[in-house]
Amino acid sequence: xAKSKNHTTNKLSYISVPSQxxxxxxxxxxxxxxxxxxxxxxxxxRYLSWFTNYRSPKFWVLFxxxxxxxxxxxxxxxxxxLIPYSPYPCTTSQLQxxxxxxxxxxxxxxxxxxxxxxxxxxxxxxxHSQPLISNGNLKSELGVExxxxxxxxxxxxxxxxxxxxxxxxxxxxxxxxxVKDKTKYLIVxxxxxxxxxxxxxxxxxxxxxxxxxxxxxxxxxVNVIWGDESEFSDIFDLEHFKKVLANDVxxxxxxxxxxxxxxxxxEKRTPLHASPNWIRSRYLKRIKREGVLLxxxxxxxxxxxxxxxxxxxxxxxxxxxxxxxPPILGIGNKLAERMxxxxxxxxxxxxxxKDVWVRTGCLPGLSPEYDExxxxxxxxxxELLTGRSNMTYHERKLAGLCxxxxxxxxxxxxxxxxxxxxxxxxAGGHPFGGKEALLPLTGEFPHFxxxxxxxxxxxxxxxxxxxxxxAAIDYIVSENSDVFMPSHGGxxxxxxxxxxxxxxxxxxxxxxxxxxxxxxxxSSLPExxxxxxIKELHKDSLGQPNLRTSxxxxxxxxxxxxxxxxxxxxxHSYL
Length: 575
Description:
By secondary structure, the chain is of the alpha/beta class. The protein has helices spanning 19-24, 27-34, 41-54, 57-77, 92-101, 103-107, 122-126, 138-142, 169-180, 194-211, 232-235, 238-244, 276-290, 308-321, 326-340, 354-360, 368-380, 393-398, 406-415, 439-444, 451-454, 467-479, 491-502, 513-520, 527-537, and strands at residues 110-113, 116-119, 162-163, 185-190, 214-216, 219-220, 251-252, 265-267, 292-296, 345-349, 423-427, 448-449, 483-486, 507-508, 565-566. Strands 4, 5, 6, 7, 8 and 9 form a 6-stranded parallel beta sheet that branches. The protein has a 5-stranded parallel beta sheet with strand order 12-11-10-13-14. Strands 1-2 form a two-stranded antiparallel ribbon. Helix 10 links the parallel strand 4 and strand 5. Helix 10 packs across helix 14 (308-321), helix 15 packs across helix 22 and helix 24 runs antiparallel to helix 25 (527-537). The longest helix is centred in the first third of the chain and has 21 residues, at 57-77. The chain is globular, with a radius of gyration of 39 Å.
């Protein structure tokens, strides 16, 4: 019987492999894979299991998933984690430069007050709609192109003048007896706004010195217009006031028990520009006899032309003794730091309130309706008009007696070279006509802020409904500015003019309204010619030193040279 034989037939095996894998294998590798020699059964089973898994679709899904996941991880580790998200993808590296240069840090101004400091986001508190990179200034703010500083910020030549309050030996000898005297006391009641009260306090100290009397802390009369009931210590640093003047006049908080029941001699009729001799002849015997003298209405009552020692005392009170109370000084300095954190800034004192237009006999020029409102109120209350009632509005305007409106301030600043990106702080009450009245300024200078714009929520709340305190905050921010300009004369403008002169003649623009307004009215004048004329008119009105002695009757606290400031050179030809 024949045995059946098993004949083995060689068959080709086919493996389904994705094309991506085939492409990645060389022909030799593929050939060795298909025609590999026989292995042991254990090895054969292991490879058969591998091939079985290799042919499974689940294997390739898992393989591709792991491959993609590893690729994403690699891409992620190559990214720089320090670069924040930016809506401007092309400026990523530039934004990095801004961070390193401190530009973005300056937008987050660090305001310090004494030992305490906190970080505030000026970008949000100043203007919620203001972009981080302002339009038109992209290159300069990103540091791509370094712009030259504007000539507008250049400071005047102070000619080396510095504070100089050396007192005579005669004054010092008299001081010994004056500060020890406990028989004579002067009480003064000061009125008006904060800056008007400052002027009267300065005069009160000088009058107390002339009489050799102790000065009771001045009483601030309640302002009938603003209703502010602040006391002296609410606005000024009382202990500092006493300490600075300790060798000149004795300052007491109240009358002593020996004089508390004394009925003071009250004087309401001190004439304008009273001299020291008139004050002694009028008041000295009475205060010696009664012990207490009460004076009211001291505004401009004391002569502006005093002996040298008394002029120095005036400066000492105005520039050293009258320091604002710590809470006011703290918030004022914070706002000033926020304004200066991104470079120089201009402070404007705008006199555009309704009562200002009524009192000056001028018109705001916003529209016929607003002009009619001002005219009607002036007719109803003629007592509000301050002097020269026989002049028409146009006569007043051409004489330079009217405040500048927003359009005129804008044209003046542009002519004097103020850059469009200038940061401007505006001080003053709310303008008649609201935001509409400010449109010419805000349209030309978009970085335009007041204390409400700069303060964080709740920062001004402790000072609300206190006009004198708000005026003090404006004073601090304005005095710290790089350039200051008032739209109209007044107590604040005069006080800051003197303060800036005493601080080294910081730039102060005095608008020459009487000479420049005819050019403002000439619409046919080319802009370049207009700018040249305006600059020429103001070349000597930028805060340069001016001798008070050449300005008879002017206040030394406005023109502190030469009584309160001196330099190494005794003569200057142009002075």
